[in-house]
Automatic annotation (TrEMBL):
InterPro entries registered for this protein in UniProt: AAA+_ATPase, ATPase_AAA_core, FtsK/SpoIIIE/SftA, FtsK_dom, P-loop_NTPase
Organism, scientific name: Agromyces ramosus
Location of the FtsK domain: 370-555
Lineage, top ranks: Bacteria, Bacillati, Actinomycetota, Actinomycetes, Micrococcales
Keywords: ATP-binding, Membrane, Nucleotide-binding, Transmembrane, Transmembrane helix
Protein name: S-DNA-T family DNA segregation ATPase FtsK/SpoIIIE
Transmembrane segments: 27-46, 52-71
Amino acid sequence: MHRLEAVPPHPEPPLALPPSPPEPARAGFPLLATLAPVIGALGLWAVTGSMFSLMFAALGPIVAVASVFDARRLSRRQRRRAEHERAVRLDDLHGEIDARHARERAAAWRRSPSARLLVDSAFAPHWRDGTVPAIVLGRGAAPSALRVDGAPVGATDRAVLERAARLDDAPVLADPEGGIGFVGALPIARAAARAVVVQGANHAIPGALTVELPEGAAWRWGARLPHVLSADGGHRVLRVVEALAGAMSSAVASAGEPDDRRNDVACLVAVAPHASSLPPGLRTVVRLDGPAVATVHRPGDAPELAFVPDLLGEAEALQWAAEAARAADRAGLGAAGILPPRVRLGDLEQPTIPSLSRSTLTAAVGAVTGGPLEIDLVRDGPHALVAGTTGSGKSEFLLAWITALALAHRPDRVSFLLVDFKGGAAFEPIRALPHVTGIVTDLDEAEAERAVMSLRAELRHRESVLLREGARDIAELDPTMQLARLVIVVDEFQAMIERFPDLGAVIADIAARGRSLGVHLVLASQRPNGVVREQVVANCAIRVSLRVVQRADSIAVVGTPAAARIRPDSPGRGVVDRGDGCPVPFQSAIADAAAIRAAGSRHSHVPRSRRPWLDPLPRRITAAELAGFADAAGSADLQAIVFGVVDEPELQRRGFVSWSPDSDGHLLVLGMPGSGRSTALTAVADAMAALHGRGSVVMLDGPRSEVWDTMAEMLDGVRHGTSLPRLVVIDDLDTRFRSWPDEYRHAILESLEAILREGRARGLAVAAATSQPHGLSQAMRDAFGDRVLLRHPTRSDLVQAGGAGELWRASELPGAGQWRGRRVQLVTAPTWSATPTRVVPRLELVAGRVHAVASARPRADADTLRSLGHAPVLLAPGGEAAARLALESSAACGEPALVLVGDADAWASNWSVAAAIREDAVVVVHGGAAEYRALVRDRTLPPLLDDGGLRQCWVVHPGEPPGRALWPVGVVHN
């Protein structure tokens, strides 16, 4: 066939013929205009009788005739102007037709390049599959897709339409499926057939299309073509036959039929001196009348079309075939392109690299046609993308690549950080290599996230080294500088990003800045398409695809569907693009135990590679061990309280948990029971005692009477400027005062809020611990400036407490938690309990004094006092007379002590007695607030008793504040 289907890539405005100028209307004779002057002149003559008025009658016809001729003159002028304008528009239309034809012609030749164009241009075969597209027979006139609207009105318009519909110097195409016959002088016919063979070999991939040429010297050049016949058949064939005899042979007659190997004939090309010798059924017959004159004929189709044939000489065809053979060998598609099914890494000769060189990371990792496959991460990279479905040998390829690099390069010139999100078993055989800085797996999510986050710090470290040395690239550093290239290998990149989405930005940063800093990425995934960010893919010049399931995955990685055609029983077979845009089939090497041992021992004299991140924080740190972290953490404020170690992976260091009360405010330790709260407070107390002595710390613990007194003294010191400790430690702040009487609980919390609010200005700091921050008042929570967050039951509890949810760990050990958004491990210290410093005296009755005892159990207390040798008087409601009699008797007899015992009701009913003795009597309260209020008219709270008034009592001497005393032992309670 000889047609051209050309569609502009972008729609263009339609063209149209300019409209033809209309025929001007013929001007009529102005009869009324002629008669009007005549009638007027006759009327004037009749009135005036002047003969001169009759002269005006002649003016009418003269003016009428002149106007007729003038109208015709103007009509001819307008028609000439319209015809000129249409001619100009026709010229513009011709120019637009030529421009669009030029674009259409260029697009047609791009779509269908002739053999001449293929030979004259730089060699770049368009191998896709085994199909042969339309064949270019030569150049000539072809139907154009351009159309011009409008109806022609003359030969000129018809010529414009015919010109627009014809595209000159366009490709004359033929359908290869129907067969092509060339008739004419054999040298010219063979040259035309050579052009067809070159076009078919340019489009069809070797191995999918076979070229069969006739015997003879004229076709020896075809032996260089990489399109060789496979023994198993099943290919398509481009077959060339020559019918030289007058009678057609049986071989020629059956040339278009499939052979016994079931190879379909994609295109049959026949060469004959006469049309009668051609095989039957050819749909396109070309008669060659000379090197520049040919006609194409298709039976039952359009008339014969003359064109200039596309001819190719033997030397030109031989040169093109040699280039095609070299390209096929590079791609593993040539006649010698049979890859071995198994390649041992130890059998590959690794390149020789200068021992201190940083300018290359080349290594032999497999086999391609003609030798080993060498990949250089520095020259070809800087990063690589590896794809491969399950069972394709992806992990084995990564293992072989890493081992090959370890064989060829020293540990101080290349190091590996291996990330395996399939459990870590893939890289376990090479863990002991001195180049391996660590293996990160998905079994420990915290360690995985921490290691990858440390890579930002590694980039900053390398930037500082280059800046300090005045180098723009790591290859420019002095050979003695200890800075190795870092290769980060991530197996199952998709799983890592799904688990830690934020790490995608870290990987993108490394991909953008890693080249000059010497950090290289090798990202492996079953389906990288859509998983790896575009900015990362753009920097991964090296592309490797082992077997994939989807054709689109292979195209997305290596630009060809070849990886999707790999057989499932061929592990390690893949396609690699080393950054030159030329995908090459290869067979991956296998790193056996011997090769791994050789890689480990070859550079055993060189120190191990520097690790880009520190180990995780230890599970336990003692106070003695804390000093050992000084080198990693750096110096701390000499006046700060250091009680733990903080992890700073993004800075590649550890820091001190350092608390400065003057600037940081009070400290609150939050955590569930068993999280190490008490130990944390002890560590803080120890650190403060080490700086300022044990007396600078008050542990708010012990009997609640002592806690009450201590808080009262501190509040008094805060408000009146007396001596204060530097630190008050309160454990279980949310439950510490829960069992206290309501009045005392409210009072102690108010005192604590006052100390938190006002004590900081006086140099008093508070370190407290609680399990639930909501158990504290809002004012108290706001008073704490710093928080240590230990283990919480759930992630939401930690977030509500103000922590970072991503740092939550369900299996956190005691002392582990977070501090200012970073993970910490606090010092483990022995419990520091407060010892009672105040002694409560026994109750002593003063001789000669009246003692008013308000008791919750008056009879029992009276019996106790009686057993001690006293003679108590038991008050009862309405017993005022007996009480007065006892008072008078006591004054007269001079008894050692008069003891009046009664409960709150008894004293209330005997109010006159109470009023009489209140000023001078010693008041003893063995009970609660009701008994105290019955005798003491002071609204302030008395000192808190430890056991609710069972073993202790209040004693109020005249003119003195209330005090505590021990109620006599041996009390018998009813």
